[in-house]
Amino acid sequence: MSVTDGFDPDGVKCVVWDLDGTLWDEIAVESATDDLPTPRPSALAAIDALAARGVLSSIASRSAPSVLDRLDAVPQVRARFLAPQVSWQDKSESLRRIAKDLGIAVDALVLVDDSPYERAEVEALLPGVRTLAPEDVPALLAAFEGREVTAESRERVRRYRTEETRRAEGERFEGSREEFLRWCDMRLTVGAATADEIPRALELAARTHRLNSSGLTPDRLRDLASSDGHELYTARMTDRFGEYGIIGAALVDRTQRAGAPATWSVPLLALSCRVAGRGAAAAFLFRLMERAREAGAEEFRVTLRPTDANLEMRILLRQAGLRRTDATVTTTSTTPATGTATAADSAVLGRTLQGELPGAPVWLHVSDREDTEA
Questions:
Q1: For 258, how many CA atoms within 13 A lie in the half-sphere containing its CB?
Q2: Which pLDDT score, from 0 to 100, does residue 373 have?
Q3: Which of 199, 179, 133, 332 is nearest to 207 (CA)?
Q4: Which of 38, 303, 323, 355 is 20 to 30 A (C-alpha) from 88?
């Protein structure tokens, strides 16, 4: 049986590497000089192969923090890792900190470590994290073979590095959080998905869990998006630091029931966790509601499949005034823990589009993409 049996590559956002015995052969703190051990070429090649598929790499090493300072002096190696943790703390705590710094779920991490003890400690305290020995890395890479790689995926590592710059600037900024967000000059544009944006929308459906309303499988999303009466929307965001790329996708169903009020139904609303806490999810949702009203719709509905991961999305929908209706739908969705597709009844939340609609956060400029390109 392979170590990756039941493994969902779409659920992996970051591989975390141990150092001694994993990234390199020797023990760094026992070195007679300040030179670090030479990294294993196979490990660096694996890290680069993962980066080409949009998978980040980080470090969790139980060692002296000075080792990280020494690693900073080797930029060609250090640049491969985001949010590294080198200290004497437990590996499970290091993984929690990495997930927090990157803004992703802990369950989106994979640990590669030569120590059975360290792997067992993580498995016991973070049961959603897959752990592998170094000799299992070829099987990990093989699990990604044949999967589509979008332009957004290839840019993911660079954009997370830009995010580290944003975070550092935020820590240095002398002012409130809202003042910093205003200073960032964030701009969100919303429009119908073009053909070259569809792969990224499918990727968001598969890879996002925190800000995902229903977890529709990519195959189901593709089928619905190409059917009559449906349209796929995407959201892009930029700020003074650069482009975030496509950070949101929403499928809109405009098919109408005879005698029912004109309605925009959203079987899937999904956003990247990279924009969590910046108001982008709310701004995208609110702009869709405005567009629905401009198109003559009287009601706005969103399909919601509650999970342990999407509490943030549920709070957003409630804040937008959507409440549970009597309707239910059966959705085919992906279970994050196993990557398997399952069918389940989902709730339908709705609200009227009459009266005042909520507005985007004051620090975020929102426009339609057609207006931006004109």
A1: 0
A2: 39
A3: 199
A4: 38
